[in-house]
Specification:
CATH class of the largest domain: Alpha Beta
Structural class: alpha/beta
Strand order of the largest sheet: 12-13-11-10-9-8-6-2-14
Largest sheet: 9 strands, mixed
Number of domains: 2
CATH architecture of the largest domain: Alpha-Beta Barrel
Distance between the termini: 8 Å
Shape: globular
Mean pLDDT: 89
Bound molecules: iron/sulfur cluster
Oligomer: single chain
Amino acid sequence: MSLLTTLTRMWLTRTTKPFTFTAEYDEKLPYADCEGLGLYVHIPFCRSLCAFCPYCKTVYTREKCDAYIDALLREIELVGSRHEGKKKVTSLYFGGGTPALAADRISEIINALERHFEITEGIGLELHPDNVNTETLKKLKAAGVTKISIGIQSFLPKYQSILGRAAVDASAMSAALREVEFETVSMDFIFALPGQTFDDLRSDIERAFETGANHVAIYPFIDFTFTPGKVKPMGKRQKRELLDRITGYCLDKGLTRDSIWTFSSVSGAKYSSMTRDNFLGFGCSATTLLKDQFKINTFSVGEYEGRTAEDKLPTSLTIRFTQRQRMIYYLFWKLYSTRLDPADFEVFFGEPLRKKYGMEFRLAEWLGFLRREKGVYRMTLKGAFYYHHYENFYTLAYIDKMWGIMRKQAFPERIEL
Ligand code: SF4
């Protein structure tokens, strides 16, 4: 882990104690009093595995997927049945993997969740471009899905070949999206690929809106140590120029920036499974964030099914947060939305932001990372770039290390970050 990341962690959490994850866990998850709770479901199957992709996934077969969904339904029942009544939640997101491969069983999963939760802000689901056909979209819509996110990565053949992806049939996709409409149609792209120019990225974004998107997500390429892909990331200066130009282009076009990486063309279009205050995750590798703990399920599909068959939660590791650690986690993800209201912080923690991190926020304003408008902090273009840059460090220092271990061990004893 880099010295910079360690020092930043010690400074912000006011302790030398690392983030410590251990093998113990709660059988009854304490979510009853959590406000702004979201749900996430992980479906780890893909038709083929992309070399650059760090997520927990495995090659699809109908039998494996069915057995996994049976285990998923058991986990939902285990978590939900330990609480009385229905808990109000914000949104439900399906990620993966390629959850659209399980289109025939999505309604079963939603029904199982709705026995214990009342979903108030819609249901989102990720698709591979190959899944964008009328038949699949109709099944998803009938199941209650209101937002979809399509992992395009790039429409341009040169980047598709770098990423090992096949060509996208944009006209077939566009026809299917016209026939079956969703509140949000998001398309994901990767930026900072070797040699990628502003014009390349701009043409991808223009093509996305022409093809039927009303929201785009532009994720930076991150070179995880455990992925077999050989793509070299772009240098810092080039990346900053590209990010600033593409952000300026999107804002000039009248798009709204809803988070560091996402822009939308209509106000109701939103797709983010990351910016919720608390969430419950179901499925292998899914994470759960509650008031004072964060837990992560096993990455092993076999062990996941084994644990739920014994009526036990498939939790692999849990961290019990100190208050400062939880605050840092909260601030990190709130700032991802490029907006932070100190009043929300005070409601969540019962203490004013200025008392806990007044100096850091004054420093961020002085450095030009944040600007205060009517009491609310907004991230500047400069702040967004440095957030991006730090996020890269954070991902490599924390997520890369943790996922690297969890891919090899279903239930590690302890991980310190
Ligand atoms: S990028 Fe998407 S399709 Fe490719 S392996 Fe990852 S989850 Fe599967």
